[in-house]
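[Automated response] Your request has been received and processed.

Submitted sequence:
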Amino acid sequence: MTNKDQLTWNSSLNFSRNRNKIISLADGVDMYPLGSYDNVSIRALEGGLYGDIYGTKFLRVEDPNSEFNGQLILNGSGLPQAASGLHKLGNQAPKALVGWNNNFAYKNFGLSFQVDGRFGGEFFSGTNLNLQANGSAAVTAPNGERNPFVVDGVIASNGSYTKNSVQTTQQLYWTQVTTTSGNYGITEQNVYDATNIRLRNVTLSYNFPKSILGNSIVQRAKVSLTGNNLWMIKSYANGVDPESVFAINSNATGFENFSTPTSRSFFLNVTLGF
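Generated structure:
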């Protein structure tokens, strides 16, 4: 877009989507492990998607005819339990990637910025699990307090369910969730949506006019300031950067454990032409 004041605006939008299905694996192989960490497993299975996340889940009422359908089944102490076996909890791949680039120019000034988004996909966060196990996560002290409470769920008895009324403590609850059924606890608790939108970079530049350069040997001069990874606009990852991965040499990008967050950087560039 151009107007009489010589303002120019160039904008572009990029969209990509990967839809896949594993048709078959080698003879005699129905599952290929991409990465396994105790009771968390990133897998490729026949008929599934590449990078499915498997782990343990909360034991719940699974009876559509029950008034308690979907509620947690607690033990006699009023604490959650893990269902037997491993269950699909998500997939590490995004449903779509979007990038929006904009470039503005007015007289000798330039401004450009990029916003990009990842939509869909999940990952398991070992960072959040360890914070919960140590009592350092905010969720272990609602409103800054650790008062006794009653877990919302039911207790099974003689083939029927009764609403739980047993009090417990935050310490007992989170110890149960983070240690039951493996070193990573009931892994469903710490599988997060990897969707995120961020301001990826901004660049502000200025081209020095000929009137300033005069008859010097410098024919062209430009100075620019660039900032990268400036603002996480939206994220559901509970304080963890969804772009952090367990290891760059692994196909299991759906697992995170005390990963180093992506950094914010700034650059000052001076370009001279002779």
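Summary generated for your ticket: The radius of gyration is 26 Å. DSSP finds three helices and 18 strands in the chain.
If you did not submit this request, please reply to this message.
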